[in-house]
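Appendix B, example 12.
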Amino acid sequence: MTMHPTRVLETFNNPAPARDYTIQIGIPEFSCLCPKTGQPDFAHIDLVYVPDTLCVELKSLKLYIWSFRDEGHFHEAVTNQILDDIVAACRPRFARVSGKFNVRGGTYPTITVENCAAGWVPQAVVQLPG
C-alpha cells in the first residue's frame, strides 16, 4: 500500500481512442493550505475530460491530489496547476477542472479552468425525445 503522496500522474492506453467520450471524476477531499495564514483550505475538485490516446489512472490521481495537502496555494493557482498537470500527463482532447472551495471569510469561491486541444471540435449533443 502506498503511504506517500506523489506528483506523478500515471496513465494507461485509452480503450476506445476512435470515440469521443467523457470521463468525469469527483474528488471531494482536496485540501491545501492558505498561503497567507497557513490554515487548511478544503475543496471539491471536479475533473471532466475527453481522452485522446491516454487516460489518467485513478490511484495515481488520488496520490497526486494528496500531494497538495501540506502546501500553500491560492485557489486560482492550484486549480490551474491541476489542469496543466492533467494536460501534460495525458494530452486530452478537452479537459475542465473546477475547484469548489469551502467557505472562507464568508465566500465560496469556485474556480473553473479549461483546455481544448488544437483542432478538436466537440460532437453535437444528441437531443432525444421525451
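Helices lie at 58-66, 75-90. The longest strand covers residues 23-33.
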